[in-house]
Give the backbone structure.
Amino acid sequence: MNFQGKRALIIEDEEEIREILNFYLQNEGLEVEEASSGEEGIQRAQKANFDFVVTDLSMPGMKGEKVIEILKTMPGVGKIVVSTGSLKFEESLVDGTLFKPFNKDDVIAMLNKLFS
Ligand SMILES: [Mg+2]
């Protein structure tokens, strides 16, 4: 499947995780923006449209649950994916879940699920 030109927003407080996810997504041809906090992520989603947003749950400041609640009200936001390690999240509330630690194949599987 070709994801060329799809726009993604990564909301994640851990820099290394943001960078590796960004790398995997760009390798698949996506255009990627990063935000290091929920607050920054919401600001970015107000300024531009995204085919999907992947957000961490556990972050300083605004928690992922609140980020998701706000993203769901925003018309420019397509699919929403939760990225989580140990924290549980009600998967029916989002379009996908990316379990940490993830690898390239996990990310590609997530994209296929989202856009097939
Ligand atoms: Mg975190």
Summary: The radius of gyration is 13 Å.
